[in-house]
Design brief:
Blueprint lengths: L7 H16 L3 E5 L14 E8 L6 E7 L5 H18 L3 E7 L4 H9 L3 E4 L4 E5 L4 E5 L21 H12 L6 H8 L3 H13 L3 E4 L2 E5 L1 H10 L3 H4 L2 E5 L4 H10 L8 E2 H6 L10 E5 L5 H8 L3 E2 L6 E5 L10 E3 L2 E3 L2 H9 L5 H14 L1 H4 L4
Parallel strand pairs: 3-4, 4-5, 12-14
Antiparallel strand pairs: 1-2, 2-3, 5-6, 6-7, 8-9, 10-13, 10-14, 11-12, 15-16
Length: about 375
């Protein structure tokens, strides 16, 4: 499909041809002339499709739910009721969501409810009982513009979004947009737009515009997918010539630039030991020359290779908020630690998952409750 904004008719035509290609020449995939979607739901964007092996009398039907965009909330509120209805009236008719692109989060929700999907980027999941059909493919080409976030729609990639994510994770609901905007020093219109996007992705739930539930693990994962630790926090590579223990001793009493919190593998091992080794990562202010001055104060040597310490210039001051004291050292908040590990290199993402496991079992210890 070459156009950036395909029509519903074009989505259906291209999608059905892709399904035919997947099934092969021994199958027929045709629009059912006698059973239109309007017979069941009185909606104009659905089409009944017949799937039949050539030479066989039995056939199955797909209620193709055509969409220009698909979100987890849309799946829950609109598509799932169709699936539940069909299961009651006809066990051999399945729902197949078809769109230019279906984001990973929406695909996950669809799979959780055994709802089929097919997008023009090559992502397909289909299971039919009669005739027996099982297809699962993952797209290899990038999504078209139609599947990308709308221009101006907030994402979780920027520093402002990071502040809001940290607040939603660290402090349990209920929340109101106005209170969040004040606490995070953000504009209310921005917070409202971002909350709308988060609700659309089922990362938060609201009742009468009050946030009642936050999927804090999903929120951390989505945020981490859109940032890169060492890209968003430019670093200085240094060597501790007298050893890490001596560096930690000096950090315990260092106050020239305020407490400097530790993150990364070293901090992760304090709550969820998974592996040994790894560089010690320390957040420092982003002010010009601060990292170099701090390195000198701590007796660290700049190096091009073989660094055992990274001084991370904080991309936003939120990394210094709600820090923890561990064995006399400052550590970043657990939510920040997860974000850093999930978006870090090497084995750090696995360490981030281990920290989240700890957080799930000790939520009352790290999360503020009203």
């Amino acid at each position: 499909m070459s156009t950036d904004d395909p029509t519903l008719e074009a989505i259906l035509r291209t999608g059905l041809q892709h399904l035919r290609d997947l099934l092969g020449p021994d199958w027929d995939v045709t629009i059912d002339p006698f059973h239109r979607e309007s017979d069941l739901f009185d909606q104009e964007h659905d089409t009944m499709v017949r799937v039949q092996a050539k030479g066989e009398a039995a056939y199955g039907r797909l209620l193709v739910d055509l969409k220009t965009t698909v979100s987890p909330k849309g799946v829950r509120d609109l598509t799932l009721p169709k699936q539940l209805f069909l299961q009651r009236v006809n066990a051999y008719t399945s729902v197949l969501v078809m769109a230019p692109f279906i984001p990973p989060a929406a695909r996950q929700v669809l799979r959780e409810h055994d709802i089929g999907y097919l997008d023009l980027a090559g992502n397909v999941s289909l299971r039919m009982r009669r005739p027996t059909v099982v297809i699962r493919t993952q797209g290899t080409k990038p999504a078209s513009r139609a599947g990308a976030p709308s221009r101006g729609k907030p994402t979780l990639a920027g520093a402002k979004a990071g502040r809001l994510v940290r607040l939603l994770v660290d402090v349990a609901p209920p929340h109101r947009a106005k209170d969040l905007a004040i606490a995070a020093s953000l504009s209310l219109p921005y917070v409202s737009r971002l909350l709308d996007a988060l609700e659309d992705q089922l990362l938060i739930r609201r009742a009468d515009r009050v946030i009642t539930d936050v999927d804090w693990q999903g929120l951390l994962r989505v945020r981490a997918e859109q940032v890169t630790l060492l890209k968003h926090n430019p670093f200085v590579s240094v060597l501790a010539p007298n050893g890490i223990d001596e560096l930690l001793r000096r950090l315990r009493s260092y106050r020239a630039y305020g407490p400097l919190p530790i993150t990364g593998s070293y901090a992760a091992r304090a709550v969820a030991p998974l592996t040994g080794g790894g560089q010690v990562m320390v957040y420092v202010p982003a002010a010009p020359g601060a990292a170099e001055e701090i390195g000198d104060d701590l007796g660290l040597l700049p190096v091009e290779e073989g660094a055992d310490v990274l001084l991370l210039r904080a991309g936003d001051d939120v990394v210094f908020e709600r820090t923890r004291a561990v064995d006399g050292l400052g550590h970043v908040a657990l939510s920040q630690l997860v974000l850093d590990c999930l978006s870090g290199p090497g084995r750090m993402p696995a360490e981030g998952e281990a920290v989240m496991g700890y957080m799930s079992e000790h939520e009352s210890e790290w999360r503020a409750f009203p």
